[in-house]
């Protein structure tokens, strides 16, 4: 019986990992970008926030009492809005856009749900232009009209 060297096993595992990674990139290019275009941006959601969870990497998960059933959404604009979003506020994400807002009493705050700085430039371009708020009105409270 010949003795198998651990170096060869390690080299074989590393090779399988590299080949698998290459194959997955060929068959599933930009799966994150595809998800954003097909699932995230088209979604419309509104309701009262009942739970807030920060996610490692700078995102914020919001759990919302929606019309038919409770739903969750991940807001990837953590740095600007984290301190301003609280439980009990009304949240709305507009369909086919990157536009979200929260309402607290007589005040409203507009923000872009997804901050593109999370992506590399080529992926950001691939997502194409989605509707975003004018930067002059975002990330601060204003009186609701």
What is the topology, as strand order, of the major beta sheet?
3-2-1-4-5-6-7
Mean pLDDT: 79
Distance between the termini: 82 Å
Strand share of the residues? 25-35%
What is the count of DSSP helices, taking H or I runs of 4+ residues? 4
Shape: elongated
Detail the poorly predicted runs. none
- How large is the radius of gyration? 21 Å
Number of strands: 7
- Helix amount: 25-40%
Largest sheet: 7 strands, antiparallel
Structural category is alpha+beta
| Helix/strand order | HHEEEHEEEHE
List the helices and strands and how they pair.
Elements: H1 6-27, H2 31-40, E1 45-55, E2 59-66, E3 71-75, H3 78-81, E4 90-93, E5 99-104, E6 107-112, H4 121-126, E7 141-143
What brief labels describe this structure?
alpha+beta; seven-stranded antiparallel beta sheet; 4 helices; 145 residues
């Amino acid at each position: 019986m010949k003795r198998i060297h651990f170096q060869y096993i390690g080299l074989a595992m590393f090779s399988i990992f590299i080949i698998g990674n290459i194959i997955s990139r060929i068959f599933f290019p930009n799966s994150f970008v595809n998800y954003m275009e097909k699932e995230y941006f088209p979604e419309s959601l509104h309701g009262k926030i009942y739970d807030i969870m920060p996610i490692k990497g700078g995102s914020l998960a919001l759990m919302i009492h929606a019309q038919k059933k409770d739903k969750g959404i991940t807001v990837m604009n953590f740095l600007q809005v984290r301190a301003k979003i609280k439980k009990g506020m009304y949240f709305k994400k507009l369909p086919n856009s990157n536009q979200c807002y929260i309402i607290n009493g007589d005040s409203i705050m507009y923000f872009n749900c997804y901050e593109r700085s999370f992506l590399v430039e080529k992926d950001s371009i691939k997502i194409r232009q989605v509707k975003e708020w004018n930067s002059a009105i975002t990330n601060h409270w204003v009186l609701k009209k």
